[in-house]
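Before relying on records like the one below, remember that each one covers exactly one chain. Contacts with other chains, cofactors or solvent are not represented anywhere in the record.
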Amino acid sequence: MASITKHFNRTLALSCSLIALSQINYGFDNQAFSTTQSMTAFTEQFGDYDPETGKYAIPAYFLSLLDSLNYIGFAVGLIIGSLASQRYGRRMCMFSMSCFALVTATITVTSHSKSQILAARILNYVYIGMELSVVPVYQSEIVPAPVRGFIVGTYQLSINLGGLIINSICRGTSTLEGNKSWRIPFGLFYVTPFVIASLIWFVPESPRWLLLQERIEDAENSLKRLRRGTMTDEAIATELKSLRVGLALEPEKGKFRELFQGVNLKRTAVVVAISFFQQATGQSFASQYGAIFVKSLNTINTYNFTIITSCVGTVVCLWSNFFNDKIGRRKLFIAGSMVQIAALFTMGGLGTASPITKQESAGIASMIAVFAVGFGLGWGPLTYVVVTELPALSLRDQSQRVSALVNIATNFAVTFSIPYLIDDGYADLQSKVGFVFGSIAVCACIFVYLCVPDCQGKSLEDIDRLFHEGVPVRKFRGYKLPPVEGEGKVEKEKETV
């Protein structure tokens, strides 16, 4: 803990805490919609009455739409946020998305029809898309290299924490009568955007973004605010010089097509594959459909189960954040993949029994919690770390845009398909869907072993040099880069560009 705190002064701590808070609404939305779908009042408000059973139920088609069409808003928000962040700065993007979220929260809380709640979720995901486009990038740009994994990993940690908070609240409101049982949890959507919009101007702009805008003096002042008290003035000046040297030596000009040219093609392929595998291994089955699926098993209280899985995911994710800068990204990725593989195949195997006993149903439910352990250990937090530290400095926004769109498209495809895969009126796989996602998790584990580098402890500029000097990705961690030339090199490079 001491090795982490020594890198933080008051300004950097405030910045990281505030930005981490902005991600909690993602967890609020993700888990609130998952949990409230199992509430009687929510089902009666937005479901259809079945005269044969005498009960209300949300039809599979609307459940699929509710949990998949939101990714249209996600993609739109990602593009808008990425362009706004690149053009107007990280802080302006975060301020704008927070103001927008206050509007979408109002639409959500006042929903009374299928069309309104569906529109509300799509619009709220515009905010979440903007958040994904800017938050991990900003985090990776402002923190020192030795704690980059810890801080960027808080993106997933905050999502888990938001899920834990909202699940706990849903547990308490589930006993209330009427629509207030689900309107109260949705009312929390107001809190985080209001705090962010009010306080975002108290944190510094990204020094790296300011350098890209050729605002050298502003970049120096921002870096001083983020480092003063933990580094000497000479060390701060050296870091600023290193940032300028790295930018000057970088051959990329910030054009989108450069993502797919030369060594950047390898970098883009890695971040795209990482974003794909994070969603393709079935995390949405556990996070968005877990509550409904567990309810169908009739083994454990749905609300207690969601709280348990949220607690487990949060604790494991926190542990991963503390140690990924020491243990390494690859090892935790592989360990997390192995846990996921074991959980998914076990879940699938238990589902082959006919009939499925109560003990087997309990085992299936427990495997969803075990899956959450694997996800929180590796693919949850570390995806955001890797996809923001590998791209070229001037291509970071474009790379984040592409990788996140792949992430969203994969999440959409998986989320849209799950009801049809598990519903007894369609494929009727039930827990045997674990065989599908488990097979993909095996591919993900192999990919990490062969293609994902360990970059902990290295600055973003050093990572850029490692790629351009042709260092094999599996040798990144132990490779020692020769020193670069000094400030004079910066001016020389600027004259030749």
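Residues 349 and 432 are 7 Å apart (CA to CA).
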